[in-house]
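INFO  loader      accepted 1 record
INFO  loader      residues=168
INFO  predictor   begin
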Amino acid sequence: MTLASFISSGTSHAILNGLLFFAFVLWLCLGFWTYKDAKRRMEDPLFIGMSVLVALVIPYIGPFIYMLFRPPEYLEDVRERELEIKAIEERIAASDLRCPVCHAEVDAGYLVCPVCTTKLKQACVSCGSPLEPIWQVCPYCETPVTSEEPVPLRPKTQRTRRTTSSSS
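INFO  predictor   done
INFO  writer      dumping tokens
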């Protein structure tokens, strides 16, 4: 059997038709994959349609072009990251509302911790509103903030240490 007779035979036509069918199915699958991937990465239907159009109009190379310009993250991953950032920010904000000594939850308007009586904020001498340590004036009544004198610490009592002399 010669090459010319094999090419003109029905077997070669069946193989060629099978390969063409496989190439057509692969082309459609690449277009479908581009559609599914673009839908997971983009919200705009116009961009999704353009991506699929490029994948179908330029057979086999279009999906690779899409892969070069597609967004790097899935929309689900972006939303999850944003939720994690929001949760971390809320956790940080909540940690500011704790007593620095006993770590009990305190309100932003508390002057002292209700659990351990640690002084949290200074009160305005005019209106009694709680003041932040860095404020120079009360934002509620415009009274200048005067810094309180720090309470002197009690001196530690000196303990005399007994030395024992031992002979060896």
